[in-house]
Amino acid sequence: MSALRLYNTRTRRKEIFVPGDPGRITMYVCGPTVYSRAHIGNARPAVVFDVLARLLRHLYGADALVYARNITDIDDKIMAAAVAEGVSTDEIAARFERHYVEDMGALGVAPPDLAPHATHHVPGMIALIGALIDRGVAYVADGHVLFSVAADPDYGSLSGRDRAAMLAGARVEVATYKRDGADFVLWKPSVAGQPRWESPWGFGRPGWHIECSAMIRELLGETVDIHGGGQDLIFPHHENEAAQSRCASGGAELARVWMHNGFLSMGADKMSKSLGNVVSVGELLEQGWDGEVLRLALLSAHYRQPLEWSQELLEQSKSRIDRWYRQLSSYADVALDEARSSLSGIFSNGESPAGYCNDLDLPWVVATVDAALSYWKSREDCDAKRSDLSMAASALRLMGLLTKTAERWFEPVLRPKPATFGLQGSPGELISEMEMRLHTLRDTRNAARAARDFATADRIRAELEAEGILLEDGPTGTTWRRA
Ligand code: AMP
Ligand code: ZN
């Protein structure tokens, strides 16, 4: 098995991934705060870590990963949305969680193994806050509990910031009850009518950062293998999570590897609700963009790089997906040698730039699949081309692409394990199955057209169209593509 290398934000370099227990790999990604529809930037971490989850299951086994992505269902923004609409915070949170699950589903994001809700874990948060007070790293002031940043000598080690920059970056309100401006809230009081829980410090609610530390501790253990989110979370959210977990556990780090995706921008600025330059996943789907096209667009830059969202990006992604479907459908013709050499690095991690295992170098994988598929021209061969094709198809399925159609076309053959991701089943055989069916239909239709039996020809075209497949008659024969 090739060594998986991942970039660790904490050490600022790529490292060979060594899980604590290869039989139970743990990954926690900070999920959405559910108070409005997710914009396409919010979908980037969901899609990126979904691909990583698929890769880990492929490398270590389908059951070897426990992937948790939380739902933040208590937050001031949720409370403000509830007040604005005159409904409960639960209603707002439940509505936007539903939208989130639907939208991510449309992008082919598999549900995580665990989707813990903050409001279901408040006792664990209270216990953790209590432990921090007992250890002398948190203090009570004015109905609040605060974490004392000065008490953690390693504070700042994740983001690599000095204290002055941290203060500026946190944009913390310097409240009078804080001993130090950089101290952050673990617990805050709620007034009547606000969501609140009973605690040793009065009725109140947890701060955001303690949420993830408590849920990780409760569900996954003291240290997770991978902790992820967008780059904006490095500071202060993850710095604070790391500090409080380290202090509560007597030094154990919260995560072995910290991973952060780059930001999506639209126009000159990062896409963000507060700037108003957002387009929601729901809007894009309503405009008729296929979820797979959006997914490929999100994966088209390396996950750590910024990505500019634009109409051209969407159009390029659509034509690339259409081309892949077309090329895979006529795979019978493979120029073996070129294809083999260019595909060989897709999963491996050799000397030269490679694919998945090189910190998820998906742009490289995409370019390689592109090149390989365009080599496969008119040449009759069989076994070797199958293995190449199967590699390309696997690479795409691991990326979560071409899966819907793959399932539709390949269902009878795929049956054994439709719910597992990765490489079960043999894509080579599956494609052959699909190809046989298309060839038969194509031949029947061509014969019908030659016999001027246009009714039959049209019926076959309509039948395929109903399945989302368009036939295209060209000078070199009939090809197909997805509608
Ligand atoms: P939120 O619901 O605001 O907590 O964000 C959910 C996730 O989306 C977090 O991991 C953020 O870092 C990430 N995120 C928010 N905006 C963007 C963006 N424009 N590009 C990429 N990731 C983003
Ligand atoms: Zn978090």
Question: What can you see in these coordinates?
Answer:
The protein is of the alpha/beta class and 483 residues long. The protein has helices at 40-60, 76-85, 89-106, 122-134, 163-170, 208-219, 234-248, 281-286, 291-298, 311-329, 336-343, 362-375, 383-398, 403-414, 427-450, 454-466; strands at residues 5-8, 13-16, 25-29, 65-69, 138-141, 144-147, 184-189, 204-206, 224-230, 255-261, 264-266, 269-270, 307-308, 469-474, 477-482. It has a 4-stranded parallel sheet with strand order 4-3-9-10, covered by helices on one side. It is elongated and about 90 Å long. Mean pLDDT is 85; it is low at 332-337, 377-382 and 406-432.
Quick structural overview:
By secondary structure, the chain is of the alpha/beta class. It contains 16 helices and 15 strands. The protein has helices at 40-60, 76-85, 89-106, 122-134, 163-170, 208-219, 234-248, 281-286, 291-298, 311-329, 336-343, 362-375, 383-398, 403-414, 427-450, 454-466, and strands spanning 5-8, 13-16, 25-29, 65-69, 138-141, 144-147, 184-189, 204-206, 224-230, 255-261, 264-266, 269-270, 307-308, 469-474, 477-482.
Question: Helices, strands, pairings?
Answer:
Elements: E1 5-8, E2 13-16, E3 25-29, H1 40-60, E4 65-69, H2 76-85, H3 89-106, H4 122-134, E5 138-141, E6 144-147, H5 163-170, E7 184-189, E8 204-206, H6 208-219, E9 224-230, H7 234-248, E10 255-261, E11 264-266, E12 269-270, H8 281-286, H9 291-298, E13 307-308, H10 311-329, H11 336-343, H12 362-375, H13 383-398, H14 403-414, H15 427-450, H16 454-466, E14 469-474, E15 477-482
Parallel strand pairs: 3-4, 3-9, 9-10, 11-13
Antiparallel strand pairs: 1-2, 5-6, 6-7, 7-8, 11-12, 14-15
Helix pairs in contact: 2-3, 4-6, 6-7, 9-10, 11-12, 11-13, 12-13, 13-15, 14-15, 15-16
